[in-house]
Design brief:
Elements lengths: L33 H13 L7 H7 L9 H9 L8
């Protein structure tokens, strides 16, 4: 009795990916400490002059919680294997 091996090539034609058409606010920074950490970041951004917030603000760099990058979102939607769940 023999064994037959088939090589199959799948051609992806006219695949429809979801597309974001609107949104607001940036996702939390990676490794921010979950919901409590994100709340601390938002508080630090509201009170930039407090000395205890300097370390957080330095770590954040130019992070803007209000920035929304629709192109970044749509790129992630087209490449689901690279998804980072927000």
């Amino acid at each position: 009795m023999g064994c037959v091996i088939y090589d199959t090539v799948y051609e992806m034609i006219n695949i429809q990916y979801p597309k974001c058409i609107a949104g607001k606010r940036n996702n939390p920074p990676e490794d921010c400490g979950g919901i409590p950490g994100y709340e601390e970041i938002i508080e630090a951004l509201k009170n930039k002059n407090k000395s205890e917030n300097r370390e957080i603000l330095r770590w954040l760099g130019n992070y803007d919680p209000e920035k929304f990058d629709i192109d970044k979102v749509n790129k992630a939607l087209r490449n689901p294997e690279n998804f980072i769940l927000f």
